[in-house]
Hints:
20% strand; 11 strands; three-stranded antiparallel beta sheet; globular; eight-stranded antiparallel beta sheet; 12 helices
Amino acid sequence: xxxxxxxxxxxxxxxxxxxxxxxxxxxxxxxxxxxxxxxxxxxxxxxxxxxxxxxxxxxxxxxxxxxxxxxxxxxxxxxxxxxxxxxxxxxxxxxxxxxxxxxxxxxxxxxxxxxxxxxxxxxxxxxxxxxxxxxxxxxxxxxxxxxxxxxxxxxxxxxxxxxxxxxxxxxxxxxxxxxxxxxxxxxxxxxxxxxxxxxxxxxxxxxxxxxxxxxxxxxxxxxxxxxxxxxxxxxxxxxxxxxxxxxxxxxxxxxxxxxxxxxxxxxxxxxxxxxxxxxxxxxxxxxxxxxxxxxxxxxxxxxxxxxxxxxxxxxxxxx
Length: 319
């Protein structure tokens, strides 16, 4: 039988060099109004995607539901894709020690710091690929600590059928308002649960509007109070949460982004080809459509195209 024709997502961004459009990036974006209704949908926002690290706040809420008493910087780090700066690595080691664990318990792969500047400094200082330096090490530490607290197996904490991962799946489905469509393996080795972009935006809205003291609100509050532990000193999630009051923001690999404003307006987007260079301009345009006009919106959206070391164009949103 003939296969159904799947319509391509629209172009969200163009790459312009010397006045010539040399590339295009397709994708999807959904904006939710404060009441949770869909204000704008561009492309397919109902089919499942892997949110990648944009799922981390949901995973952090799962470890709290398991009874782990994290707060402040430690809880922010549990939801982090950290840059691997010294304060990130130091806190991961401290958290491991506090829960009777060590780096050998981590099942995330050894890696260099995510931030390019930090990576260069780390290598100059003689650093090597290390599990603690891996950007997901805070999440893995929290998962291990939660398993240890409940006397659940440590060796299999990344198994989708592990009690902790089943609990995280419950958080994902409850906050997204839809069933998990597929389970894969993320780059760090943790289970990765597919939901739609609309469900992802709905989950972030749930987190910012949750009752104070609930696991979801505790995660949102910790991330917003300590954004440098969620990302790093040179990352756009940090800038957004520092400069727009009450914003909850988390990027994911393959050019995924989710964000919620404190009144419940929220968004989720994905660039189809995973091109990070298109993410900032598309995110900036989406924020403007939500009515956000802070200076940081322009900063996040600026993506120059260089020629001979000079700026000769830009990546620009076109929706």
